[in-house]
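Bench notes, afternoon.
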Amino acid sequence: MPLGSLRVFVAVAHHLSFTRAADALGVSASAASLQIRSLEEYLRRPLFRRSGHQVNLTTEGEQLLPRVRKALADLEHAIDDTREDRTGGALRITTLNSFLQQWLLPRLQRFHMRHPAIDLHVHTSAAAVDFVREELHAGIRVGLGDWPNLHVEKLLDEWLVPVCSPDLLKKHGPVHDMNDLKRYRLLHSTTEPWTGWMLGGLDDEDERSAVTGLRFDDSVAVVRSAANGLGLALARWSLVSSEIAAGTLVQASPTPVKFRRSYWFVCPPRSLQRDTVAQFREWLFAEAREFCDPPGVGQAG
């Protein structure tokens, strides 16, 4: 039986889209389509009706979906129970490297002071993870919150903020629109391109090539480059708030732009029964409530 295809089946049924399901699973849309085709060939039944970009479950698919969901949940619980002794008392959390370095690390001392007995292991990745296979208990991810079969809670909204060194702002002045950007060398991240600010929080792949400047695939490198005076960076507020508070960076625009993605706390539903996960979640959300939005959010609407 093509067991791997069952997870893809549940994801496509949840999103009713091969593209969105593939993004949630961290695979290509073509790979997701091949998995579904393999499952349909095995069952000798169509599970989805495809009409252009529209995807809908067939009658057979609707009948199969709840049983597959329950079977996968039971399988996950069985594996969880078996590995419990092997994982010991360590709490294993996954998050983005940029979020760890710029937001989480400065706050972890408070967590350890409150819960000194918890042995915390932090895994960093931006990719989708298999919590069972990778022996992880919970995670923090940026996205739209549409991950099936997981407990998902919004942790923080995110904002895109143009930032630079104080000297550079004094030299070139604040930015209010696209014309003001021409005075600066622009610093780019592949995950927060300048088109996101120009288009009001959205992003257009076709427009990215029209913007020139230094480009990085590491959000922290963009922040460091801006602090060193290399140019004007578009950064996530969570990554630069401490730098702005310290004075190494300044906000170059009075009106931040709401990012279409947010931070989410995610975990298998059963993980919430673990005391260590519940304690980490409680502490994490308390820290998030103390974290303020950037100046100008009210004016941005």
